[in-house]
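Below is our example:

___
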Amino acid sequence: MTSFEEAGTEETVTCLHMTFYHPCQEDKMMFRCLNFCKREQVRADEMPKFGRDSNVCRYNLMDTRVSRIQFALQFYRKLNSSEFCFEIKNMSKKTKLIVDQTELGYLNKVDLPWKCIICFGDYQILAEIEEGESVDYFETHLHLAEVPILQERCLPSLQPIPENGFSSLFPSQGKSPMESDENES
């Protein structure tokens, strides 16, 4: 047998791509401590944190308006499944974290959809999960956006657009649909 035949099968790695945007990035350089150049390996049992405290957070945001620890990520495998997921937890007592349209208060957590937008303050982060098989670690790949993510990405609306052409960004709360007959006046 040759060394090629004896070599183990290469394992794919789950990668969390995160694209960061803030309107004052050019002036204040709040992302200057983030490594946008290459993928970074993170052990599966680590809970990487994002915030301004460089002693605690793996990913530092250089902004006094950001909490010491803004949010944390947990990599896990679903029960009775081979699927890997991420959970995001708001660690800020002062700032709500919004994942797509789900608002998280302090210590609230939610599964990260495979593609979503995370917002807090003026920060916008597009998170996209690239599936992999490794159980030992995952990777993060950070990107910097030049334009607002909420403006750049036209995420499909889950709400039908009414005939008058106006649509609300948020679904109306507490209203249930009403049926009507076209022939009634």
